[in-house]
Amino acid sequence: MTRPNYRIERVNELIKEVLSELVLTELKDPRVGLVTITGVRVTNDLSSAKVLFSVMGDEVQRAASMKALKAASGFLRRVLVRHMDVRVAPELRWVYDDSLDRAFRIEQALRDTGTVPGDEPKPEDE
Fold this sequence. Notes:
Layout: H1 6-25, E1 34-42, E2 48-56, H2 59-71, H3 73-84, E3 91-96, H4 99-113
Helix pairs in contact: 1-3
């Protein structure tokens, strides 16, 4: 069993927080839709970070947001350097996180079959 690397976990969380704030407040690119940073996985040597994100919208909005995020990577890395107190920020690799889409499809399928807990009709007050 491998021992968790708490430093890496802290770095992951720090990058996630900083990127979330920057995407929300600093990126003015109109292609960036309603983007949520869902996770960050940095390599042990801090040279690369996989940034998981989700976007509200269709496939076209996702593609546009991905392009905008990739284009803004240099700016985002420069800001990360200041927040992380390192000489070089990790290379950002943007990966669309489809887990929310899958969860929505599963919930919708359960609703369609009538098996979602809490969706039972409430008895009328007598």
